Amino acid sequence: MARRERVVRMSVELPLWRALTAYRVLTMVYAVLLFVFTRQNFERPLVAAGFLAVLVVWTLATLPKVANAARCTRGFLAADLTVALTGILLTPLADAHAQTHDGPTLPSIWTAGSVLAFAIKGGWRWAGFASSFVAVANIVERGEPSRDTFHNVLLVWVASIAIGYVVEVARASERTLARALEIEAATRERERLARDIHDSVLQVLAMVQRRGTALGGEAAELGRMAGEQEVALRSLVAGGLVPASRVSEDESQGAVVRIVDVPDDDGPAQPCDLRTLLAPHAGAKVTLSEPGAPVLMDAPAARELAAAVGAALDNVNRHAGPDAQAWILVEDWPDEVIVTVRDDGPGIAEGRLAQAEGEGRLGVAQSIRGRLRDLGGTAELLSVPGQGTEVELRIPRGKAAE
């Protein structure tokens, strides 16, 4: 059966990079407009104009660098911070009054974008490193810093560290979620294989063991060996033989989950009449009661439901005795499909199902309940010792063909 792989990326970090890209462009425009409307206040407007020209070219040319963490290298971050610090320290040269009037620096609030890049890339420690350099440059640029200067410096320092910390928490949450998906996928794959093995190999081994014991002689030894292999195989399946079908990675674009799909060999799912899948079960010891109209369902869901019915009937054959009778009732309701399997056997003793699961016997736990759970349905088992057993399988109508 062919498998195909699709990649799902989960990242709260990517929107932050997009927001940073927009922020750098908007604050670049703001710095230019601020100079245009206040250029008469500059003693050396050519110095300011020259720096702003470099700032515009740098910002536009490096937009791809702030697209994601992979492109935002340490070298770029160092160069970007250097541009911001240069603009701050050039401000007194372009406008000598800036030191005494607490006016904006040449890059203005564009500088915060450089610090935020550090925060998103490396977390709160990198943010603290970059904002400290900006703080020192602002204090040096002011000469005699005022209270407002210290207030602004502290605001940038605290805000950048807080954003860096949030990014680190988000990354950790993504890795945790990816790991949870990995475990969930491994569990589902293991359960699927366990159902398939139970419906085929394990049942054959159990039959060989029973028949060999009954025949005696060399057949008894063969039955004993089959029983040992059955126990070993159940232990392997229950212990997690199947590797994860989803793996997570800590990449620059967030946690990555690769989902291995097993497409249906029959191509796209087509509506299937559940009655045709259940009809082969009818016989001298099994009575099938069904609606007069087709019970249309998606083919994969119909096959899984029919397999669960088959597993219930297998349990009847194995545990209810050779003379037990079974009845299958199919109900097609507007909101769900219900299939009930009932027998007149001796029933199930209290605690027997839990004991069977502990022994690795998955007839009810996986072949029946597991299948219905994967389909979004439920499987209810009602048994009274001496009065038979009833298994009710319910699938929401959303799984059926419209």
TrEMBL record:
Transmembrane segments: none annotated. It comes from the Bacteria. It holds the Pfam family DUF5931. Residues 189-235 form the Signal transduction histidine kinase subgroup 3 dimerisation and phosphoacceptor domain. One of its GO terms (molecular function) is phosphorelay sensor kinase activity. SUPFAM superfamilies: ATPase domain of HSP90 chaperone/DNA topoisomerase II/histidine kinase. The keyword Transmembrane does not apply. GO terms for cellular component: membrane. Keywords: Kinase, Transferase, Two-component regulatory system. Residues 5-178 form the DUF5931 domain. The keyword Electron transport does not apply. Residues 304-397 form the Histidine kinase/HSP90-like ATPase domain. PANTHER family: NITRATE/NITRITE SENSOR PROTEIN NARX-RELATED (PTHR24421), OXYGEN SENSOR HISTIDINE KINASE NREB (PTHR24421:SF61). This is Two-component system sensor kinase. It comes from Streptomyces pristinaespiralis.
